[in-house]
Design a protein that fits this description.
The protein has one domain: 3-Layer(aba) Sandwich (Rossmann fold). 32% of the residues lie in helices and 21% in strands. The chain has an eight-stranded mixed β-sheet, sandwiched between helices. It has a three-stranded antiparallel β-sheet with strand order 1-2-3, with helices on one face. A hairpin with a 3-residue loop joins strand 1 and strand 2. Helix 3 packs across helix 5. The longest helix has 19 residues. By secondary structure, it is α/β, with parallel strands linked by helices. It contains eleven helices and eleven strands.
């Protein structure tokens, strides 16, 4: 797996005062927001077609889900016999950057489809700040309803991937902000106003949260004090910008979309959630927050499996920025396969 150099990202937070009324928010190399509303996202990660760099035996195509909101997805199908689990995946990027067509996700997910023997729908949801939360959650739900509709209609256009799917064995998954999206889509499906018939014939069996991007007004120890390498994918300052650009205007970081524990464990008890696996990275600033989240799920009676990957940081599985990244990524894929196959 090729490494993506974070030296090119140069993840510094800054402001500037020149064209378009000056820069009001910036993560250098990733996103720049101007006072007049203009948004720039430098092409720091290559955008690749669905046919490029696929794992052997995996086919992929892009599909339009909603042309009015420009919602689309990239679907990966491995050459495996029988009906396969369906994994609906949401990419990371602080809700503000990222794409299902980024080369790192194309590589990771085609590999995962092959190793875990599952069909993967990689969702290209709308980004903030143009589309603040809950836009990404709505896109996630709309994707599930679209899959449901294709299945009920017996769509010939989408038979190439539908015929391989065991729709009753569906999992939601994502990394970083994408894990936050997966969790919040799952909670909406598990709210008191929803029922299993909402997405039938789809059957939500589990959620796989890889380094879920949560936050809170009170910082954890790892957010305050953990030593990060100079080119970390996520720093406290970078997280500040992402939350500032993605949460509803006026919301603080104890908003439940940012901090699922802000209203206490009692709210978690009321949710009907599927089995959850949380993948935590030892060197991630989110480590303590992720572990607290797992502990709260356990306390509320939910079934949660916690896996800690030692010696690696945030998004190691797509950045390959450590000598341990490749073996840890293989471990993660094995854990995901085992979780899906339970």
């Amino acid at each position: 797996m090729a490494a993506i150099s974070l030296e090119r990202f140069n993840l510094r937070v800054g402001t500037n005062l020149h064209q378009h009324g000056g820069v009001v928010d910036e993560i250098e190399g990733l996103i720049r927001v101007y006072k007049d509303g203009r948004i720039e996202r430098p092409p720091i990660v290559p955008i690749v077609p669905c046919s490029m760099g696929l794992e052997r035996g995996v086919t992929a195509n892009d599909v339009v889900i909603d042309k009015f909101s420009s919602l689309w997805a990239r679907i990966y199908v491995p050459s495996c016999p029988g009906k396969l689990p369906l994994l609906v995946y949401f990419h990371g990027g602080g809700f503000c950057v990222g794409s299902a067509a980024w080369s790192c996700y194309n590589e990771f997910l085609s590999h995962l489809a092959s190793k875990a023997n599952c069909v993967i729908i990689s969702v290209n949801y709308r980004l903030a700040p143009e589309n603040r939360l809950p836009a990404a959650y709505e896109d996630g739900l709309n994707t599930l309803m679209w899959v449901k509709q294709q299945a009920l209609n017996g769509s010939n256009e989408h038979r190439w991937w539908l015929k391989h799917c065991n729709l009753s064995n569906m999992h939601l998954a994502g990394d970083s902000a994408g894990a936050n999206v997966a969790y919040n889509v799952a909670t909406r499906l598990g709210s008191s106003g929803a029922s299993e018939s909402t997405i039938r014939p789809l059957g939500l069996r589990g959620a796989i949260l890889i380094q879920p991007f949560f936050g809170g007004e009170a910082l954890t120890w790892s957010e305050r004090y953990s030593n990060q390498p100079p080119n970390s994918a996520l720093t406290p300052a970078v997280a500040d910008v992402y939350w500032r650009l993605s949460l509803p205007l006026g919301a603080n970081r104890d908003h439940p979309w940012c901090n699922p524990l802000a209203t206490g464990v009692a709210r978690l008890r009321d949710l009907r959630l599927p089995n959850i696996m949380v993948c935590v990275s030892e060197m991630d600033i989110l480590k303590d927050r992720n572990l607290e989240f797992c502990s709260a799920l356990n306390s509320s009676g939910k079934r949660v499996e916690t896996v800690l990957y030692k010696g690696v940081g945030h998004s190691f599985q797509i950045l390959h920025n450590s000598q341990l990244s490749q073996p840890r990524t293989h471990e993660m894929m094995s854990h995901i396969k085992a979780f899906i196959d339970e």
